[in-house]
């Protein structure tokens, strides 16, 4: 299996040690999740503990004290959290993946973020809604940027905008703009039934100056970058696949959490009106078995796709577009595949399932919210795959 970094001997980058560090944080995640949902934000002490364990440096470049860790190991850590709190897993994923994006940007931009604080965090809102004007040495940007998960814990934000055309560039150009949080105002509008603790509030930016070196023109994000880009192997992976993984991969952990809760319930539950023990009910048994198979299938699929992408990076080979689209569709549809099974489990639990403290209630609400994200809707990619096939 192709690897994205050399083997190292210290525990700081040992995958099993990192998984153990994530598992050690689970009691804190469980103890704080109810309050986090009430406050609509993961608690600062939870983020501080994850940061202290070094886990938020997973995608950070080594030159700034990071690990440049293989994404397969990063998302395995995320799934440890997802088994117990989807909001914590979501925030861990999106705050981590910003370091991946920053690893593609100008080293001067990286120095601004991590030069004085190697633990600094970055949130984002990539939709190019910002109003951008040219300025000497850079740009000025204003706008309201929505759904910036984990923004209350970040010191910087990456927001999107369209640079207007000029005499050199006849068409508008999408850019990402790295803005210090002191130039942002967090508008706490996040009030949802699921993923409440992600704190996915709006960022309001008013006429902030961004030097040119703190901007980035993203490629399509579907194909690996060539070695000629000068980036290390990790940052040559398709950025959109890595980014989307931060909100889709957690389906594996969520599925495990749901399966554990439902299996426990099934083991002891007696059906109403003489229906007998749930453990003898074929519908319950089928739900357990199919969910177990689906979790394993999605996890192996993700790991194999990352291995394939890593191999292309290592060999500096191009990837056929149809293959890249297939990987994206498999990833983007994974959470909905698990969510359908959790829906079925909720129906099988009957009256117990509709209680707020039911064994699956919060996880079901969180998954229902997560599948509404465009990054977990594969329909557009399915249509693109069909177009490629019809035009072949």
SSE layout and pairings?
Layout: H1 15-24, H2 26-39, H3 44-52, H4 71-82, H5 86-102, H6 107-114, E1 122-135, E2 138-148, E3 156-163, E4 173-180, E5 184-187, E6 201-211, E7 215-216, H7 239-248, H8 251-268, H9 282-315, H10 321-332, H11 334-348, H12 361-370, H13 379-390
Parallel strand pairs: 1-3
Antiparallel strand pairs: 1-2, 2-6, 3-4, 4-7, 5-6
Helix pairs in contact: 1-4, 4-5, 4-8, 5-7, 7-10, 8-9, 8-11, 9-11, 10-13, 11-12
Radius of gyration using CA atoms only: 22 Å
Largest sheet: 7 strands, mixed
CATH fold name of the largest domain? Butyryl-CoA Dehydrogenase, subunit A, domain 3
Q: How many structural domains in the coordinates?
A: 3
Number of E strands: 7
Helix-strand string: HHHHHHEEEEEEEHHHHHHH
Structural class: alpha+beta
Number of helices: 13
What is the CATH architecture term of the largest domain? Answer: Up-down Bundle
Q: How much is the average pLDDT?
A: 94
The separation of the N and C termini measures: 31 Å
Strand content: 5-15%
What is the CATH domain class of the largest domain? Mainly Alpha
- By CATH, the superfamily of the largest domain comes out as Butyryl-CoA Dehydrogenase, subunit A, domain 3
| Strand order in the sheet with the most strands | 5-6-2-1-3-4-7
Low-pLDDT residue spans: 6-10
Overall shape: globular
Helix amount? 40-55%
């Amino acid at each position: 299996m192709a690897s994205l970094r050399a083997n190292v001997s210290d525990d700081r980058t040992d995958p099993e040690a990192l998984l153990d560090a994530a598992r050690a944080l689970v009691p804190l995640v469980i103890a704080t999740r109810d309050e986090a949902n009430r406050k609509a934000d993961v608690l600062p002490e939870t983020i501080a503990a994850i940061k202290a364990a070094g886990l938020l440096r997973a995608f950070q470049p080594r030159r700034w004290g990071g690990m440049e860790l293989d994404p397969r190991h990063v998302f395995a850590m995320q799934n440890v959290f997802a088994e117990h709190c989807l909001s914590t897993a979501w925030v861990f994923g999106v705050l981590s993946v910003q370091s991946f994006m920053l690893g593609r940007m100008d080293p001067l931009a990286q120095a601004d973020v991590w030069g004085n604080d190697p633990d600094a965090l970055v949130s984002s809102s990539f939709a190019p809604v910002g109003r951008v004007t040219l300025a000497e040495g850079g740009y000025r940007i204003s706008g309201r940027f929505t759904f910036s998960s984990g923004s209350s814990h970040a010191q910087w934000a990456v927001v999107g905008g369209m640079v207007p055309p000029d005499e050199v560039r006849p068409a508008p150009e999408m850019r990402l703009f790295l803005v210090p949080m002191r130039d942002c105002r967090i508008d706490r509008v996040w009030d949802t039934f699921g993923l409440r603790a992600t704190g996915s509030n709006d960022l309001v930016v008013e006429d902030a100056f961004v030097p040119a070196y703190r901007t980035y023109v993203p490629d399509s994000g579907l194909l690996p970058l060539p070695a000629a880009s000068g980036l290390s192997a990790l940052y040559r992976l398709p950025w959109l696949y890595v980014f989307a993984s931060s909100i889709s991969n957690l389906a594996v952990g969520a599925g495990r959490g749901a399966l554990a809760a439902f299996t426990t319930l099934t083991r002891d539950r007696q059906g109403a009106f003489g229906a007998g023990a749930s453990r003898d009910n074929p519908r319950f048994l089928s739900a357990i078995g199919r969910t177990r198979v689906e979790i394993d299938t999605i996890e192996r699929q993700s790991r194999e796709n990352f291995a394939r992408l890593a191999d292309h990076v290592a060999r500096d080979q191009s990837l056929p577009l149809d293959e890249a689209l297939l990987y994206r569709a498999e990833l983007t549809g994974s959470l909905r595949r698990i969510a359908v099974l959790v829906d079925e489990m909720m129906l099988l639990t009957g009256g117990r399932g509709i209680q707020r403290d039911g064994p699956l209630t919060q996880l079901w609400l969180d998954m229902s919210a997560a599948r509404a994200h465009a990054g977990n809707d594969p329909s557009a990619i399915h249509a693109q795959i069909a177009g490629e096939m019809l035009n072949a």
